[in-house]
Amino acid sequence: MVIMANINDLLRDHVNLEVECIDRLYLNGYVPRLQTSGYLVRFLMDHLDKPIPSPALLGQMTQRFVRAVKEFAGRNGIPMVKFKHGQRKDDIANEIRKKRPVRDGVVFIGVAQEKAVAFTGHKQNNKGYVRFDYRRDKSVYVNSYYFYLDDKEFGPAFIKVCSYAPWGIKLCLNGHEWAKRQLVRRGIAFESLDNGFFRCDNPEALQAICDSLGAKDIERFFHRWLNRLPLPLDRKARAAGYSWRLSIWQMEVSLTQVFDRPLHGRMFFEEVIRDNLDLGRPDRVQLLFDRKITKRTPGRFRTRVIQRGVHPSLRIEYKKFHLTQYFKEGRALRTESTFNDPRDFGVKKSLSNFGYLQTLGRHINRRLLDVQRVSHNCGLSGESVERVVQPSVTEDGQRAPGLKFGDCRVMSLFVALTSFTHLLHGFRNRDLRALVADLLEADPNAYSPGRMTYDLRRLRLKGIIFRQGRTNRYFLTPYGWKVTRLFARLEARVFRPAMTAFTDDDAPWPAALVAALKKVDAQLDLLISSGVPTCQRAA
Which of 296, 274, 271, 299 is nearest to 287 (CA)? Predict the structure, then answer.
């Protein structure tokens, strides 16, 4: 029989390598001075020095760009591949990279017809002269050109260029691949996982390298390839201020923990999934990052266990943000924060926010592990339980009413506090009140602010929550997390099923469980009929 080790012990004693690193990074390249129709007309008339801003000028620029791409490919012996609809571009790229191991150059150029929001021109006759009006309000199918690269610093990457105005660019990099190139340059031996690390001779140097990746490295990569690739806007236009600026489209921040044996990793992850199935409400879990969620808030807010083949993964969603945890290649635990829209966290998409999002992603990854550690080891002493359920008096003489186990209002409070909602940035009276009222299936007005204030006071006096400074924001204490987690799990997993099995013979519980619970019931009857108090018998 294999005994499940404590999660703290597994992470402390059985992890050989731990790496925090940027994983995949997708960026948008846009020309700020070409984002509106007015800017586009000024570009055609002032920069190109054309008296009439005709759409034909844009068509000519597209044709020149396409010819330049073909000439560039022919001159350098670079294959061009036409992507078919529905093909996985990454799979094709990996196969071609194996057959054509180029270093610091373009491996191949892919061409795909895709949707893009491009400018369309409309001719208008107005008082005897012709004018053109440009709109950018719908998607059109245009050709995009994928330059699949091998960069001397970043390794495998690609740059996608749209052939129609305003000539948007997509850039895809990988922080792990960048770190591998830096290790090779320093002569530090390592062994790779798929998109990660399995072993490294100098883990401290590896982490320092991952920490050093910043926005300047990405900008340097981008401008290096702008000067090497054929583009719709030539150097003269870029020098005149019509150049691309980068913004964050998608950013993955990962934490990889490699276990010494596959068994230990599987034990950890299976236990983590089992413990996180009942967090919050049964159909979803809210992950709130100091943001108020209402019925009008876009996006999904839930926790899911996704099964792909035989490999499950835990996924928590907050608006467009995803927090994912899975077991990688049978050896490593991967915890991954994916920012699909930085505005979900109150910052813009500018590349200047790269460092902030990296720090925030690492904090979220670590916080999830901290929660899992506590939730798996949430036992409390008898004295601690008594302190919660019985009235008590604090050291300064304040009376703290009891929080009775089984009371509907108390259990709703505890469930609301265990739903990952308040772990990062705390909560306010109205935040918790809405959740508790929802769990009670009551009108929010029935659970009044006064009742919420009363409940917050007894939670605070019991040491379950604390108030930050002179603000109205509360935080769950480590002790409070243990209390609320234990009580919520006992009520959901033990008492509710047990009472159903005791009272309903037709309940759909396994026969072995019903039989065991009836034995427990019989022993309780025997203990009660003996007339000996439980505390005295224990003594």
Answer: 299
State whether 51 and 79 are in the same domain: yes
For the chain, which residues score pLDDT lower than 50? 1-4, 277-293, 307, 309-310, 378, 531-539
pLDDT at 137: 80
Decide if 502 is inside a domain: no
Question: Residue 30 is encoded by which pair of tokens?
Answer: 């846009």
Query: 435 with 534, same domain?
Result: no
Residue 287 DSSP SS3: coil
Do the domain assignments include residue 527? yes
What are the structure tokens assigned to 214, written together?
Answer: 């910043």
105-117 vs 80-82, strand pairing mode: parallel
Domain hosting residue 430, numbered range = 382-493
Q: Position 10: which residue type?
A: L
Residue 375 confidence (pLDDT): 55
Amino acid at 422: H
Please list the residues that pair with 191 across neighbouring strands. Answer: 199
Positions of E strands within 243-296: 245-259
Burial (CB count within 10 angstroms: exposed 0-12, middle 13-18, buried 19+), residue 110: buried
Largest CA-CA distance found in the chain, in angstroms, rounded: 108
Q: Are residues 311 and 425 in the same domain?
A: no
224 and 114 part of one domain: yes
Residues 140 and 262 in one domain: no
Strands (E), 418-494: 465-467, 474-476
Please list the residues that pair with 171 across neighbouring strands.
Answer: 27, 159
Same domain assignment for residues 527 and 391: no
Tokens matching residue 475 = 């935080």
| pLDDT tens track for 70-101 | 999 999 999 999 998 888 999 999 999 999 99
Residue 533, CA distances (Å) to 380, 383, 495, 530 in order? 22, 17, 22, 9
Please confirm whether the linkage preceding 53 is cis (ω < 30° from 0).
no
Q: Does residue 198 fall inside a structural domain?
A: no
Fill in the DSSP letter of residue 350: B
CA 327 to CA 450: how far, in whole Å?
A: 46
| 278/272 Cα distance (integer angstroms) | 11
